[in-house]
Design brief:
Length: about 80
């Protein structure tokens, strides 16, 4: 089970390069010479998209720990 979770986490971290631009941003940025602004816009969009997933994963983990916490008194 741990290997599956590790695999999925590594897959998310090292996923393929994606272009995450809206149509208007893409049209404006394609006309640029150096394409540095386009790369910056792509990185910013991916960064903003990742934050909610990280927050949901963290909250889910905390809820999981709260409900499946083994009481120390029951262990003995």
């Amino acid at each position: 089970m741990k290997t599956k979770i590790t695999f999925y986490l590594l897959f998310l971290v090292f996923c393929l390069k994606t272009n995450a631009q809206c149509a208007m941003c893409r049209a404006v940025l394609e006309s640029e010479e150096g394409q540095t602004a386009a790369q910056g816009i792509n990185d910013g969009i991916v960064y903003l998209m990742a934050i909610p997933y990280i927050l949901v994963a963290g909250i889910s983990y905390l809820i999981y720990r709260k409900f499946y916490k083994v009481d120390d008194k029951l262990k003995k």
